[in-house]
Amino acid sequence: MHLGFYAPLKAPDHPTPSGDRAMARALIAALEYGGATVTLASTLRSRDGTGDSALQTRLLDQAQGEIARFSQLGRAEGWQAWVTYHNYYKAPDLIGPSVARHLGIPYLLIEASRARKRLIGPWARFAKATETASDAADVIFYFTHRDAETLERDRAGAQQLIHLPPFLMRSSVDAAAAPDGHMLAVGMLREGDKLASYKIIADTLAQLPDTGWSLRIAGDGAARARVEALMAPFGPAVQFLGQLDADALADVYRTSSLLFWPGVNEAFGLAYLEGQAAGLPVVAQDRPGVRDVLAPGDYPDPAGGIPPLAARLQKLLSDSELRHRLGRKAQDHVAAHHLLPAASATLFSGLAKCGVYR
């Protein structure tokens, strides 16, 4: 089986790490795990973060050249389907639907957003392109049940919607280490939702006893000074590790006691899967998207504010047996639902629904 693959928001070979890049790489790995030959089609990044009409025009023009080029390549290589990861109004798939149509092959989307309210305003042309791509898809895989709501509402014809739980690019988990040591937070240091999560972390730490705990923060970004200011009252109890590569971050997970990340507006959060795969219990708030990747457990409602979160954190910090038990439960959950074998099986079930078989 030979497939064309495209990620318009961020290509899997983009130099800047992110959850989107990691998931694009994981999707390719899951398809290859099942025996497919995957060609990274275009690396055109269609993202327009500001609603810039001139930029949209340039990207639409560039896409036309990519359509012609990859229609020829796909015919030469014998592509049997086109798979696109992440189609939304700020980064629509401007290429895949046309290439698939020219080649007469199925078109599949993974993580597609519907935002018809954007059909009016500075992203109107891109929102239209997003809707066109979503309408053209034979199959749309969705990561979270929140995503499924609008996809079901706006489903096109006989289009298939399939739940693909977020997953890690590995086929097994390591033996869980005893979750002892520092608390850990993993997140980019940037404005907006990430900074909002760090603000909740700081407010929660302020309600803990003055001694007996420590927190390490893995990540970096433009808002580092603001996050450092939030954590300044806690002195050396909070340590900034900076941006870590995969191996270094894996070591940090193994030497931590728990993962603490509130999850403000997270699509789902790969760090939750990474932490649980290492056997860490998670302290998070019960938020849409986030709850799709967490092992069943006790996660405070954001409406309750800081006190329930602080109480949950203190309970885990003071009870090593509870940490160990929940850490093992979290690892078992990831092993069963969020690794390559399960993801590959789901992806190939969607291809089969389009008449594409291994």
TrEMBL record:
It comes from the Bacteria. One of its GO terms (molecular function) is glycosyltransferase activity. SUPFAM superfamilies: UDP-Glycosyltransferase/glycogen phosphorylase (SSF53756). The keyword Transferase applies. The keyword Transferase applies. It holds the Pfam family Glycos_transf_1. Residues 204-332 form the Glycosyl transferase family domain. Keywords: Transferase. CDD domains: GT4_PimA-like. This is Glycosyltransferase involved in cell wall bisynthesis. The lineage of its organism: Bacteria, Pseudomonadati, Pseudomonadota, Alphaproteobacteria, Rhodobacterales.
